[in-house]
Amino acid sequence: MKSLLRSHCPLFVFLMVLLASAGCIKEPTPQPTVVMADWKDIPGWEDDNHAQALAAFRASCQVLQRRAGWQVPCWVAQVINEDNPEQVSTFFEAYFNPYRLQDVTGDDEGLITGYYVPDLRGSRNRTEAYPYPVYGRPDDLLVIDLDDVYPDLGNYRLRGRLQGNRVVPYWDRRGIDSGEGDLAGNELFWVADPVELFFLHIQGSGQIVLPDGNRVMLNYADQNGHPYRSIGKLLLDRGFMTRSEMSMQNIQRWAMNNPDLAPDLLAENPSYVFFRELDGRYQSPPGALGVPLTPERSIAVDPRRIPLGAPVYLSTTRPGNSGEPYQRLMVAQDTGGAIKGPVRADLFWGMGDAAGELAGRMKHPGRLWLLLPEGVSPPGT
I need a surface site. Which of 27, 157, 178, 322 has the fewest CB within 10 A? Predict the structure, then answer.
């Protein structure tokens, strides 16, 4: 049968095209990505301590209060007694409508991952012990907003550099690490470990632990414009690791145990992040919304699908293999290069090694409900 199909492949393809053009083969009708829901259908809603999410939402209101439809809930949030759980829950139920999120196929289950703020040993000066640079945003990085020229592409920005009178792509990770893209003079710090530095780029924020024990917070400043490529997927595809072994900790362990292979593997992720130094006021880094993130209450989302600042209820399981439910109200306060689609979130676990243990093992299916005030329409409707 296979050889028969092969020998008649052009005829087979022709018939398929003819049938499709005649309307015999129909594409599935795309489903809406937001569906009106009911509070009673949200698993674990009544068991969550919404007061912790209220504090994160109040922080979001620094930005949201300037947007149409958000002024009233932001004003009321300031006078709610956070020590009264019933009052807090009533506030969210009275001033918001819940929407279940799903993809265009109607599937409401997506991927939930985690991130955190790592500690890196570093110095302000290059030494034998600290040879790897952490770069600030380079002056020759161009950011081109397409909105004025192509309004349909208003969510996209091009990043590049000038080469003569042409704009060309900015240096990728391999070009920067090899020195071909000369970023001398843009170093903020120097760190001890290249693998830790690579994961700093993935997390987007970190703390440099200086030789005298002082700590300095670093935060995302910009990116080179190249797409993120998962190193974990490459390890799976090449048989270096099984799916059950996959975690951030095991990826780091593999890289440290394979110093001859690791540099080339890391370079296959062309995305490169530039940082800025934060002053001592920040106990937690700001996300894309511009407000400090709250551990276990802030999530990174796709802002084309979920408006930054909005409350989002998450139902998933705790990191690891226990299957223990993890259900709580979050606030969308950050974004990420790998966070795409309506049912996709990255949970901020906090600072340091303990948070890193949880974040590194967080890769579970989950569901999301978007909370919006009356009069504020879901994205895409």
Answer: 27
C-beta of residue 216 within 8 angstroms of C-beta of residue 171 = no
Cα separation, 315 vs 55, whole angstroms: 20
Return averaged pLDDT per consecutive 10 residues of the chain, 381 residues in all: 40 43 59 90 94 95 95 96 93 97 92 94 96 96 75 68 92 94 94 93 93 94 92 90 85 89 92 92 89 96 95 95 91 91 96 91 95 88 64
Q: Which of 277, 305, 330 is the last residue before a domain boundary?
A: 277
Q: What are phi and psi of 189, to 5 degrees?
A: -145, 170
Tokens of 24: 């015999």
Q: How far is CA 73 from CA 54, 70, 80, 288, in A?
A: 11, 6, 10, 21
Residue 284 burial by Cβ neighbours in a 10 Å radius (0-12, 13-18, 19+)? middle
Give strand pairing partners of 223.
Answer: 273
What residues pair up with 273 in beta bridges, in sequence order?
A: 223
231-248 burial, b at 16+ Cβ within 10 Å, e below that, comes to: bbebbeeeeebeeeebbb
Do 62 and 44 belong to one domain? yes
Nearest to 173 by CA among 186, 188, 158, 183: 183
d(CA 168, CA 160): 5
Rounded Cα gap, residues 346 and 362, in angstroms = 9
Torsion angle defined by CA atoms of residues 275, 176, 141 and 339, in that order, rounded to the nearest 10 degrees = -60
Do 331 and 365 belong together in one domain? Answer: yes
Nearest-angstrom CA–CA distance, 266 and 259: 11
Same domain, 104 and 226: no
Q: Which residues contact 128 (CB under 8 A, 6 or more apart)?
A: none
Contact 321/43 with Cβ under 8 angstroms?
Answer: no
In terms of Cα–Cα distance, which of 283, 130, 123 is closest to 210? 123
The verdict on 336 and 349 lying in the same domain is: yes
Domain annotation covers residue 19: no
- The CATH number of whichever domain residue 335 belongs to comes to 2.40.40.10
The DSSP line for 94-139 is HH-EEEEE--TTS---EEEEEEEE-EEEEESS--SS--EEEEB--T
Give the chain's domain count.
Answer: 2
pTM recorded for the entire structure:
0.80
**Structural domain boundaries enclosing 319:** 34-114+288-372
